[in-house]
């Protein structure tokens, strides 16, 4: 994964920003820039051990222009105030139209406004939670399984795997590969040509693998590690 | 002296004899009572009778109700038919013996289950032996009978008793008691109880009105009697006068008796004016009583309705989260009720088309209204306030530990408190959204996949397929199921007997009853798969 290349800029260290920043830190991402317009939150961020924090008035475009934003950077709008958040998305999209802008919304009304303002991805706080309740009620087992991915309880994970050069998987049809024997489940692949969109195997995917393709699998972390090692080999081993 | 002594000795003898007799009766009575009280058969029978007569959720009660209703209607029909036509013999026999007999049996059964007399005896006996006191039959008997009597004087019991009476043919007057059979129907309508309840709330006003009416009526009756007794040939007695007065005051005015003197007409005019005033007053009292109660009556209906279902949700608080929750469902195919303290919110919910009541879920009485014994209840604490949510959680768990609680927590620090309160699932909207946000930031391409799986909206839905005892899946091995054909991926199996989840199951695993198969795929594929696999094997 290209964690190193892309920078992350978080706007807002309020009730949402704090959580997101902490989650990212837990995942091992250190290189993020925090931007706050509120002094109290700014101090809090410094107190919490983030050293890359800037205090500025985000409603002023001149300030926003000063931030060193590169093409790969992800801009995340997490201001506590809905109005400010929408405004920020609008300003950022005007200044950096090619960058990925993500926003968190805590009301149904804000979600549609953020989308209109041009946010590439809006996560609706209530929609996500309401969905969870739905799942708890209707699919308890599936929910427990899915929860494991987020809290890391059961050790299973999603992983994108790039098919290396000289792999035995090269030029093989998907139907012919028995992923089961590696203890993992193949669920789909990422189409690089189609703007990195994700295609599920269940849509009736028929494909011949090439080096450079990215496949997505679920499995135990160890099994996934092992699989990644194995596919580097030009020949399939008889027994694992 | 001697004679007196002999009388005394005879008396003494007699007393001893009778004491022995009473003791033996007592002994017999108590052994019989204890035996009866301990008899499982008797208890079971009693319970079953009670269940069939009084438990509305018992399906058999429906049949019994319909049967009794048919009897009542046929009986009333026979009475009406009899007025003009001679009754065929079979109808007579049916009416006198069959219907009355059934009603008699029903009455006796109701009397039997109304209170438990044998346990009264046993209790008294146990108390007596414990305290080393002599066991007395009479107090226990009196207490038992008192309870039975209390039941017998309830309106429903009186109606039941009177409905049996028409069976006694020699007294033709008793035929009119067939009407009480008609009244028996009231047992099957709740409206009359509610009507009485509503009116009883306005007791004071109605009583005042009635007294006033009586007063005016009597005054009018006395006046007309005194003034017109001699002149008016229609008024022969005080009863005629009262009859005239009531007919006039109620503005019915048959006109069979009418005043002939000027003074009599003046009196008529006065009481007519009183009559109009009082009738409008009575109407307004009753109407206001109903409009006040209409709201609660409606709520009670909703709660009654929901209590009949096997499983339902109680959603506390109608905020953003609850709204979003409802949006998850394309069609609401479950029973629920929304409770909110805030009337504004309830109004909003009703406006959005959901069933909602203004009520405080943290109060014991509120949640106790729901039938937690016969239905699986899930309480969702969705208010914004953690303190309130925790209180509701405790309240629900206090009423019945069987109630499942899903609570929304404001922050991670408070999760422990929810656990302690007994919440089954704790939801952290902030945390959940943050995690999703982190995924979206770190793995943008993956986000779509994960979001699709989590929300189940897109092509990749994770769903559960339960193996039914009659379905096609039972006893099959994983490898025998052509998942590829259905465009599904088997992710795992929850084995019912081992209570564990198997990821990426072995092809040799055999599906057993109530196992849950976790599959991923398009929504359409999954529903097709479920349709096929759950069909009965023919």
How would you describe this structure to a colleague?
The complex is a heterodimer of chains A (240) and B (538). With 240 residues, chain A is an alpha/beta fold. Chain A folds into 2 domains: 8-130, 3-Layer(aba) Sandwich (Rossmann fold); 155-230, Alpha-Beta Plaits. Helices cover 36% and strands 22% of the residues of chain A. In chain A, β4 (74-77), α4 and β5 form a beta-alpha-beta unit. Chain A is globular and about 60 Å long. The model of chain A has no long low-confidence stretch (mean pLDDT 80). With 538 residues, chain B is α/β, with parallel strands linked by helices. Chain B has 4 domains: 39-188, no CATH class; 203-293, Helix Hairpins, CATH 1.10.287; 310-432, 3-Layer(aba) Sandwich (Rossmann fold); 452-534, Regulator of K+ conductance, C-terminal domain (Alpha-Beta Plaits), CATH 3.30.70. Chain B contains 21 helices and 10 strands. In chain B, the strands form 2 sheets. A 6-stranded parallel sheet of chain B has the order 3-2-1-4-5-6, sandwiched between helices. Chain B has a 4-stranded antiparallel sheet with strand order 7-10-8-9. Chain B is extended. The relative contact order of chain B is 0.04. At the A-B interface, α1, β5, β6, α6 and α7 of A face α13, α18, α19, β7 and β8 of B.
Low-confidence stretches of chain B: none
Rg measurement of chain B, Å: 36 Å
Helix content of chain B: 55-70%
| Assembly classification | heterodimer
Radius of gyration of chain A (CA) equals 21 Å
**CATH class membership of the largest domain in chain A:** Alpha Beta
Question: What's a quick, concise take on this entry?
Answer:
With about 240 residues, chain A is of the alpha/beta class.
Salient structural properties:
heterodimer; A: 240 residues; alpha/beta; Rossmann fold; Alpha-Beta Plaits; 2 domains; 6-stranded parallel beta sheet; 4-stranded antiparallel beta sheet; 8 helices; 10 strands; 36% helix; B: 538 residues; Helix Hairpins; 4 domains; 62% helix; extended
């Amino acid at each position: 994964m290209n964690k190193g290349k892309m920078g992350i800029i978080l706007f807002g260290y309020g009730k949402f920003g704090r959580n997101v920043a902490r989650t990212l830190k837990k995942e091992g991402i250190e290189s993020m820039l925090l931007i706050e317009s509120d002094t109290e939150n700014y101090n809090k961020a410094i107190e919490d051990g983030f050293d890359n924090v800037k205090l500025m008035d985000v409603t002023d475009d001149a300030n926003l222009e000063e931030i060193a934003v590169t093409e790969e950077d992800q801009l995340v709008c997490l201001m506590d105030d809905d109005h400010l958040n929408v405004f920020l998305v609008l300003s950022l999209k005007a200044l950096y139209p090619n960058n990925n802008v993500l926003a968190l919304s805590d009301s149904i009304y804000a979600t549609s406004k953020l989308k209109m303002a041009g946010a590439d991805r809006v996560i609706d706080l209530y929609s996500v939670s309401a969905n969870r309740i739905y799942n708890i009620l209707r699919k308890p087992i599936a929910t427990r399984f899915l929860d494991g991915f987020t809290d890391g309880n059961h050790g299973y994970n999603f992983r994108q795997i790039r098919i290396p050069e000289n792999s035995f998987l090269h030029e093989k049809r998907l139907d012919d590969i028995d992923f089961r024997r590696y203890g993992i489940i193949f669920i789909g692949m990422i189409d690089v040509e189609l703007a990195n969109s994700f295609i599920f195997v269940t849509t009736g995917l028929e494909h011949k693998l090439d080096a450079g393709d990215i496949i997505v699998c679920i499995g135990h972390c160890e099994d996934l590690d092992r699989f990644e090692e194995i596919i580097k080999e030009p020949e399939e081993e008889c027994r694992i | 002296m001697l004679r007196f002594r002999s009388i005394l000795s005879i008396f003494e003898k007699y007393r001893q004899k009778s004491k022995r007799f009473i003791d033996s009766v007592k002994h017999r009575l108590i052994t019989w009572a204890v035996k009866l009280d301990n008899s499982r058969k008797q208890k079971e029978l009693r319970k079953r009778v009670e269940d069939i007569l009084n438990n509305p959720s018992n399906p058999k009660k429906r049949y019994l109700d319909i049967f009794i209703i048919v009897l009542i209607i046929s009986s009333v029909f026979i009475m009406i038919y009899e007025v003009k036509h001679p009754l065929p013999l079979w109808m007579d026999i049916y009416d006198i013996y069959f219907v009355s007999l059934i009603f008699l049996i029903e009455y006796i059964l109701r009397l039997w289950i109304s209170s438990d007399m044998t346990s009264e005896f046993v209790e008294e006996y146990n108390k007596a032996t414990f305290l080393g006191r002599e066991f007395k039959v009479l107090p226990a008997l009196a207490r038992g009978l008192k309870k039975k009597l209390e039941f017998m004087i309830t309106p429903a019991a009186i109606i039941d008793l009177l409905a049996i009476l028409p069976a006694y043919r020699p007294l033709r007057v008793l035929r009119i008691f067939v009407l009480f059979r008609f009244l028996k129907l009231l047992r099957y309508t709740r409206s009359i109880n509610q009507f009485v309840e509503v009116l009883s709330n306005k007791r004071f006003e109605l009583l005042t009105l009635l007294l006033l009416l009586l007063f005016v009526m009597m005054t009018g009756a006395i006046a007309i009697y005194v003034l017109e007794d001699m002149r008016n040939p229609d008024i022969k007695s005080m009863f005629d006068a009262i009859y005239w007065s009531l007919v006039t005051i109620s503005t019915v005015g048959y006109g069979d008796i009418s005043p002939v003197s000027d003074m009599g007409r003046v009196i008529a005019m006065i009481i007519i004016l009183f009559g109009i005033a009082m009738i409008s007053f009575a109407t307004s009292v009753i109407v206001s009583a109903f409009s006040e109660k209409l709201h609660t009556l409606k709520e009670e209906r909703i709660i009654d309705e929901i209590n009949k279902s096997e499983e339902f949700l109680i959603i506390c608080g109608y905020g953003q989260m609850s709204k979003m929750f409802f949006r998850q469902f394309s069609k609401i195919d479950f029973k629920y009720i929304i409770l909110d303290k805030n009337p504004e919110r309830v109004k909003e919910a009703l406006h959005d088309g959901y069933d909602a009541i203004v009520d405080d879920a943290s109060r014991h009485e509120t949640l106790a209204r729901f039938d937690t014994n016969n239905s699986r209840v899930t309480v969702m604490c969705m208010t914004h306030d953690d303190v309130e949510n925790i209180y509701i959680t405790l309240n629900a768990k206090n009423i019945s530990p069987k109630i499942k609680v899903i609570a929304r927590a404001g922050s991670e620090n408070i999760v422990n408190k929810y656990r302690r309160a007994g919440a089954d699932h704790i939801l952290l909207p902030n945390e959940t959204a943050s995690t999703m946000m982190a995924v979206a930031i770190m793995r943008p391409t993956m986000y779509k996949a994960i979001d699709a799986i989590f929300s189940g909206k897109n092509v990749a839905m994770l769903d559960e397929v339960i193996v039914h005892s009659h379905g096609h899946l039972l006893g099959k091995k994983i490898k025998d199921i052509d998942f590829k054909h259905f465009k599904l991926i088997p992710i795992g199996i929850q084995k019912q007997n081992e209570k564990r989840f198997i990821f990426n199951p072995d092809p040799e695993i055999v599906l057993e009853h109530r196992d849950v198969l976790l599959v991923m795929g398009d929504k359409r594929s999954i529903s097709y798969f479920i349709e096929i696999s759950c069909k009965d094997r023919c």
